[in-house]
Amino acid sequence: MKTVFSILLLLMMTMGCSDDSDMGDKDVSIVGKWQMTESYVSPGGETEWKEVEDGRIHHFKADSTFTSNGLECPEGRFSITGDTLLLEFNCNYEVNSRTIKFYFDDGDLFLTPIMPMCVEKCLSKYERID
Fold first, then answer.
1. Global pTM?
2. Element (H, E) at 15
3. What is the pLDDT of residues 80-98, one digit of tens each?
4. pLDDT value at position 118?
5. Domains detected in the chain
6. What superkingdom heads the lineage (predicted)?
7. Could you give the percent of the chain with pLDDT greater than 90?
8. CB environment 51-74: b (16+ within 10 A), e (fewer)
């Protein structure tokens, strides 16, 4: 009986553990300067990674503010909930905020907009530059 209980306990512990390897790097912070190096966009056909020259730069600061040279409003505040990044702009434009999914892989930052900007898949790869 002890053997059966031990096996069941071991199985339950094993099933309760998850492999977080597909969740990206846990120890990388979004704080810093990030430059877009590649873009993965599907215009309705085949999709592939394409290199981006002089890509936009987002600077996420420790005080939860950001600046960017690639957005309609170049500054604002950001907050993170789980794998979601919320950008709140300081400009009086039609777009006051933008919600973006993000993850890290091998130290790179990957961003994909949540709002319906793309018919299929949109994904941008950023490398830390500071």
1. 0.74
2. helix 2-16
3. 999 999 999 988 866 688 8
4. 65
5. 30-128 (2.40.128.490)
6. Bacteria
7. 52
8. eeeebebbbbeeeeebebeebebe
Q: What are phi and psi of 3, to 5 degrees?
A: -65, -45
For residue 11 the two structure tokens come to 């199985």
Q: Are strands 97-105 and 65-68 parallel, antiparallel or unpaired?
A: unpaired
Quick one: pLDDT at residue 77? Answer: 95
pLDDT below 70 — which residues of the chain? 1-27, 43-45, 93-95, 115-120
Q: Which two tokens stand for residue 81?
A: 């909930």
Contact 17, 99 (CB under 8 A): no
